[in-house]
Structures are given as C-alpha cells and as structure tokens.
Amino acid sequence: METYLYEQFLEVLGKEKISKSESELYRHSRDESSHPYVEPDFVYFPEGVEDIVKVLKIANEHKIPVTPYGAGSGLEGQAIPIHKGISMNFDNMKKIIEFYPEDLMITVEPGITRLQLNEFINKHGLYFPIDPGADASIGGMIANNASGTTAVRYGSMRDQILDLEVVLANGTVIHTGSKAKKSSSGYNLNGIMAGSEGTLGVITKATLKLHGIPEKVLAARCTFNTPGECAEAAQAVLSCGIQVLRMELVDAESIKQVNSYGGYAFPEEHSLFFEFAGTPNIVEEEASVVEELMKEFGCSNWERANTPKDRADLWKARHELAYSYKHIKGKASTGADACVPISKLAEMVVFGRTLLEESGLIGGVFGHVGDGNFHTMVMYDPNDPVEKAKAKYTDDQIAMKAIELGGSCTGEHGVGVGKMKYQLKEHGEAVELMKSIKLLFDPNGILNPGKIFI
Amino acid sequence: METYLYEQFLEVLGKEKISKSESELYRHSRDESSHPYVEPDFVYFPEGVEDIVKVLKIANEHKIPVTPYGAGSGLEGQAIPIHKGISMNFDNMKKIIEFYPEDLMITVEPGITRLQLNEFINKHGLYFPIDPGADASIGGMIANNASGTTAVRYGSMRDQILDLEVVLANGTVIHTGSKAKKSSSGYNLNGIMAGSEGTLGVITKATLKLHGIPEKVLAARCTFNTPGECAEAAQAVLSCGIQVLRMELVDAESIKQVNSYGGYAFPEEHSLFFEFAGTPNIVEEEASVVEELMKEFGCSNWERANTPKDRADLWKARHELAYSYKHIKGKASTGADACVPISKLAEMVVFGRTLLEESGLIGGVFGHVGDGNFHTMVMYDPNDPVEKAKAKYTDDQIAMKAIELGGSCTGEHGVGVGKMKYQLKEHGEAVELMKSIKLLFDPNGILNPGKIFI
Ligand SMILES: Cc1cc2nc3c(=O)[nH]c(=O)nc-3n(C[C@H](O)[C@H](O)[C@H](O)COP(=O)(O)OP(=O)(O)OC[C@H]3O[C@@H](n4cnc5c(N)ncnc54)[C@H](O)[C@@H]3O)c2cc1C
Ligand SMILES: Cc1cc2nc3c(=O)[nH]c(=O)nc-3n(C[C@H](O)[C@H](O)[C@H](O)COP(=O)(O)OP(=O)(O)OC[C@H]3O[C@@H](n4cnc5c(N)ncnc54)[C@H](O)[C@@H]3O)c2cc1C
C-alpha cells in the first residue's frame, strides 16, 4: 500500500485502531487451513458501524482490498488477505446490543464468539445451538454458513438469522431482514449474506434466533462393522422421524486417534454418537426408539452416557477429533467436507475410507451424518511433495464424487480459496449469475477479493 | 401486443399451447385478491423447460411482459398481468420428475398443487407439510414463500427447497442448489428465488424436502377471554420448547362466522387451536404439558379432538375461515398479514381487533400465532367508497404498526401490488439494492413487471 494512502487511513481511522505489529500481521495472515499465508498491509480494529463505513469508503475509492477476520478458525483460507490490503478484526465489536428473551432472540456484534454468546444467554435458560467445534465468531460463522453437530436438528447459520446490519462496499448501511420470524416481503437478503464469506458486505450486527435449553439431554453411542453400516443406520433414524439433537459418525481409525490423544477408552470400532434433547419423557422415548432401531440394524456396544461426566466426555472426544489428528508432529492436515443425499452416504463414506487406505496416509472419516455431511482428515508431511499430492488427491476425489452424486463440495466449511475449483462443476451456469451478483454488490472488487470464484 | 409479434409467438410456440379464449383471459386476469383485474394478451401453456426458454427469448428481445400464473390463489395480485403481455400457466407441467423416498426428497414440476403432491407421496408414508389453506401450486407457493398453519414447526417454503431449476429472463437455465441437505458453496440462490414472485426467473422444477407422516396426530382447542390472552398463552407454549405442529388463533367473531357457515358448534369465544404430532408417547406428553400450561394461563373449554372426525372438523373449520367471510353476499374482502416478534403479538392482535370494532365493518382476527403472524379479514361493499376506505385503512394501520414494532408487513402472503407501498418503510436502504438485483436478473423488466417495488 502506498504511503500516502496508509497515512490517509491513519488520519481518518485513528492510529489506536490500526496495527502493523509483526504479531498481528502474522496472526491475520492465516486461518486454521494450510493454504499459503499472506500478511495484510495493516490490521484494523473497528469499534462500531461508523468505523466500518469510514474504512470502506476510502478503500472503495482507492480499490484497496478489505478482508474481514473473525476468529481465524476457518478451514479454507477464507480470512487470508491474499491480495493484501486491510484485515478487519472484530475483537472490539463483541457487544450484546439487545437481548429479547421472550422472543427467543438476540442482537449482537459480529466479533462475539459462540461460547461468549452462550455464556451470557445460558443464565437465562436459553442457548444458541450452532456448534462448529471451534470457538468461532458469530460474524465468521454467518459468513461461512457454518453448522456442525446440531445442524440435523436446527439447520445451519443461515436458518438462525432474522436480520443483519451490513455495510456494503460503497459504505451504505442496510438491514437484510426484520425481527419477524418469517416474512414474504422484498427479496431475501439474509440468505445470500450467509455464506458470502465477506465478499458481499461486512456484517456489523446480527439478530439471531435462540432456543430454550432442553430440560434433559441424553447421549448414547453404538458401533457397527463398517462405516457404510453406520451410514445406513443413520439414514434409518432420519426416516423414522425422531428429532435427534446430534448424530455423528466417527470411524475406527479416528476413535483410536482420539482415545490415544485424550486418554479415552471408547471401543475402537466404527461408531455412531447420538444426543437426544427435550422433556425427560420425550428423551426417554426417543432414546428407546433409536436403541431398538440400531439393534435391528445389528449394532454392538449400545451404551448410554448416564452421568453428565460421561456425556461431557463423549462430546469432548468428538470435538477433540480434529485436534487429535492435528497434534501429530511434523504433519499438516487437509480434509474434505462433502455433503450428499442421505441415500448416497454409505457409498461416499466407503469411498472416502478406501481412498485413505490407498493413499497410505494417516487419516479418518467422521462427520455430521444426519445431514449427509462428512469430513475426511488426512495428515501429510508438508515437505514431502508426494504425500502432499496424495492428500490433495483424496480431497479432490471426494469433492468431485459428492458433486456427481448430486451433492455439494462443501457442506459447512465454505469455499475460500480451497473449493473455488469446484464451483463451476457444482453450480454450472449459475456461477456466471453469482459472479454478476458479486460485481453488483462490490463493483471495485474490494471485499475479500480472490475468494469463492476463480 | 402487435400482430406481427403475436404471430411470431404462434409460430415458435405452437398454437395448441396458446389461448386467447375469453374464459382463459378472464381466469388469468385475477387472483383471489380484490386488486383490479387485467387480462393478458394471451395465455401460454408450456409443457417443459424448453418451451419456457423459447418464450422468454422472444419476450426478452421484444420486451414483452411475462407473468407466471400458478393456481391463482394469491392474495396480493401477484399473478395479475398488470402490464398485459403473456400469462404463463403451468397446468401442463405437473409431473413428478423423480421421487427419492429414502432421501425424504422429491423433484416436481411447478404446476403440481400441494394436494396433488401429497396424494402421491402419502401412499409412501411421507408428506409435504406446508399448508397455505388454498390448494396452491408448488411454483406459486415457492414464488410467494408461502407457509401457513404448519410453519411453526416446519418453516416456510424457503426452508423446504433443496434445488430449483430456473429459467432466467434471457433464457439461461440454471440450478439454484443441489440435492445436499446443507451447503456452504457459492451464493445462496434458493433463498432469493423463494418469495421473488416471478420477478427474477421462472421456476421449472423444484426439489423439495419431505417429511415422514407422524405416527400420531392429536388436535385440541381452548378459549380465552381476550385475543391478547390467546397471544400471551401462545408465547408461553413457544418458550417452553414444545414443538407443536400447529397453533392457531381464531377470534370470537370468526368462530361465530365459521359456525354459521359450516354448521359447527365451537364455543364462540377467542380460541387457540393446537395440533401435536409424533409417536403416541410424545404426542401424549406434549398435549399434557400444553394443557397444563394453558390452564395456568386461565383457559376455558380445553378440549381434545378425540376422534379423527373431530380432528378433521377442527381443521376443516380453520381452513373454511376465509371462505366463511368471503361468501357474504355483496361484500369484497381485504386483510392484513402482519408478522411481529412474539412479544408484540398480544399488542398487535388487540390493535387489530380494536381497529375492526372502530371501523364498524364485519371482520375477524386469526392467524398463525406460533410465528407471530396473524391476519385480519375485513368485509366491505366494493361499491361504497366509505366502507372501502375504512377497510383499506385497517390494513394500512396494521402493516405500518407491524413494521414499527420491528416486524414485517407480510408474513406469508407476499407483496404483489398490495404491499408495494410498505417496502421502503420495511426495508429502508435495502430497497435500492433489491431493485438493482431485479435489474441484474431481468434487465429488460419482462418478468412480472410492476410487482414488489414501486
Ligand atoms: C477444529 C475445528 C473444527 C471445525 N469444525 C467445524 C464444523 O463442525 N462445522 C463448521 O461449519 N465449521 C467448522 N470449523 C470451521 C470454522 O470454525 C468455521 O468455518 C467458522 O465459521 C469460522 O469462523 P471464524 O470466526 O473463525 O471466521 P474466520 O475464519 O476468521 O473467517 C471466515 C470468513 O468469514 C468472514 N467474516 C468474518 N467476520 C465477518 C464479518 N463480520 N462480516 C463479513 N464477513 C466476515 C471472513 O472474511 C472469512 O471469509 C472447524 C474449525 C476447526 C479449527
Ligand atoms: C382461502 C385462502 C387462504 C390462504 N391462506 C394462506 C396461508 O395460510 N398462507 C399462505 O402463505 N398463503 C395463503 N393464501 C395465499 C395463497 O394460497 C398463496 O400465496 C400461494 O402461494 C399462491 O399460490 P398459487 O399457485 O395460487 O400462485 P398464484 O397466485 O397463481 O401466483 C403467485 C405468484 O407466484 C408466481 N409464480 C407462480 N408459478 C411460478 C413459477 N413456476 N415460477 C415463478 N413464479 C411463479 C406468480 O407470478 C405470482 O407472482 C391463501 C389463499 C386463499 C385463497
């Protein structure tokens, strides 16, 4: 960035809100993916919507890239400022703007993380159930249309949004919805902002749906002989109409990994993890119906997590899965995030597991099978081009196969730089329309340039 | 339309698929609203996507308006071809393209109605729950983002869409989604097509989510002293987390109306109607919890519909509500469709009821209170300008107040020509962006011109 421009930013934005420190540039050069790091010219810490209007107006005039940065937990390089410019960090925008407990609704700033949000609302008997594992920011979760283990019951981030305050590239501030639970007015802008990865506007406030904390929660798990059998059993649960809160597949390899990482003693077989939530009677009924069904499908090791500690352990282990691989010394990780129609899930999971075997790399298959969404995690030596190529090959094959089966290359992680190459295959002619929407919202291409579309 | 153009259409589209008969022009000049009728130049009955590509290419070249027409049950004049041109009717596009029972999913053509769809899938133990009362077409329901009594559990049409095949104004065919249950790929086009009322593209196929028919369904009702008490009680049900299938408010006036229209004997007081669905145990548990809660809130006349006939009667009566007013001789009807945060519902309902009293017109308040969505129905003599003005005044006041309370002028009926005047108040600066989206999709303004935005 040219000096005169940087000085203009300094003057207008105030130097307390700008950082060029080595550690901040480093932190904002990356996310949790292994996509190449790029440092921004500087990091900006806005304190409210007016600050964001200011920065975008100058950036738009001079065509300076602006890349929003949430908690940096993205897995596809979404927050990496690959064309440099400004990284915009929301650490100073974490306020709860308004809380409406009777409406099961809250308005927050984008920098608040899901755990911070829950810490506040749990005291009032409410919770925000979307759980992408990492303690991501609400802004980042909306921008990625994140979801996770509870999507089978509550849907993705897109389904939680009532209204967003958004600053457009030219500095215009709009609201994308209202506080009504449903509406047929105007065009649906909530939906298009969710998953737009900072390329269409900067989210400065979000009004979200909340849910009552269920009176009772019960976890259980069981094992099957093959990942394919797990997927078939999961399909049966969905068809019978039981509203599980979570239903996760973890393959034997991953159970081994997490047992050794976290000191657990789960049976090292292909497993389904369940969670049920509701009144005690409903939970009991649901757990019994599913237990019976799983046994019909030939499961072993059906076990309820009877104590709160058992339940906490089970989901702690599930959440540690990614880290249990990632901590392996000297290895980088990559992974697929395919989502397919449920009837194709068994085929896909077997396909993924076979690719992993063939690659000879350490890796596992796990995921949110209730949505037909599953991940692979593949470990490779980043200095070994052959291992790296093999790892990328498995990702590639899985994404392509998912699309061929009518599914999506990314169920929840988003496109970023990693999934750009599949957009045309997945969306066909619609890609041109999407690109023209980008151009309409951001004619100078300043908002997180170089993402989603090639 | 100039003769040479009409002849070009005749030649390219085939005269068997075109009608200019008086009865067809008449039928396509109106919907169920009382907005002024306008006849199209001709009605076109396409038989597949290629036909639609053909007609749009010529229409786009010559800037001829094309207005899709579903079942004509819209309440805001959405399907009225106010700038004449072509009315496009989907009576010959009602096919089930592909049925995926294991995936709880189906792909259909837009002309199929919800009852026709259900007739097919019910045999397989599945159902499509969105129920706007009228036997609307799937295309029309998507285009209006319709919902109805079951939205409290299943959401609106937007929430049912996995993928749409859409023909854009220039004849390009796109798919807006995939068969994956969730996705973070590309921009969300499903959402923006839902509720676009035929102004952004013509829907030629829809892949929708289905649901298992609940093992047991149980209906119940109770009464309160005021509509406000009904609304407060409804709010309590939502907060306690019970997933009712339906929860409807019907005020005393409307109960009187429907009793006399349909020969029912419901207590003529302000009422809540409930429906619970699930396994027998879950249904029993939910009904008991709600019964207890309603009694805490001081309800009277709690009564379960114990036989299937009782249950059918209860919902038949609810569905006949609109007609029980509409059949009144010599009167036209109009009505509001406000949606507000639940905590504002009691205030809004009382406001609506008071306006009706003050107007001196026959009318009622009823609606889908689980979503904060409610309707008024006001009867007026269309030849009496004072009555007409009073009726429109109540609609107006309710829409404006809903927006002021943070809600929406239309929860489900859509904008059409009737709610255009509230768009700026509801969406503010976002209206400009919405208009530019319209221009991007349809630069020549041929798709259902004159709707949504002034
Ligand atoms: C161990 C682990 C497990 C994970 N499991 C899951 C999972 O199960 N499900 C899942 O969905 N994800 C998962 N993720 C991925 C990640 O947590 C999500 O993608 C999350 O949404 C990222 O949020 P963030 O705040 O970290 O955003 P960042 O990574 O900082 O940014 C993500 C994107 O959001 C944009 N953005 C951020 N804030 C704003 C704003 N205010 N306005 C506009 N754009 C903005 C950025 O520009 C960027 O494009 C996992 C990650 C890890 C490390
Ligand atoms: C008694 C009664 C009760 C009602 N109750 C409810 C209710 O509870 N909830 C509710 O939501 N609605 C309700 N409605 C309104 C109505 O049923 C809905 O708005 C429904 O969605 C209209 O569908 P339709 O097929 O009749 O569409 P039409 O009225 O024919 O058209 C509606 C719009 O859809 C567009 N359209 C139709 N097909 C296509 C296509 N293939 N591609 C693109 N655009 C298309 C048209 O251009 C038009 O803009 C009720 C109506 C009546 C008469």
From TrEMBL, chains A, B:
Its EC number is 1.1.2.4. Signal peptide: none annotated. InterPro entries: FAD-bd_oxidored_4_C, FAD-bd_PCMH, FAD-bd_PCMH-like_sf, FAD-bd_PCMH_sub2, FAD-linked_Oxase-like_C, Oxid_FAD_bind_N, Vanillyl_alc_oxidase_C-sub2. Its cofactor is FAD. It comes from the Bacteria. Pfam families: FAD-oxidase_C, FAD_binding_4. Residues 36-213 form the FAD-binding PCMH-type domain. SUPFAM superfamilies: FAD-binding/transporter-associated domain-like, FAD-linked oxidases, C-terminal domain. Belongs to the FAD-binding oxidoreductase/transferase type 4 family. This is D-lactate dehydrogenase (cytochrome). It comes from Psychrobacillus faecigallinarum.
